[in-house]
Design brief:
16 residues, FimE
């Protein structure tokens, strides 16, 4: 789930 974690972080960063 490393890739999913990166995508999730990217989405959270974009939302911030």
């Amino acid at each position: 789930w490393e890739r999913n974690n990166l995508i999730n972080e990217n989405l959270k960063r974009e939302e911030a």
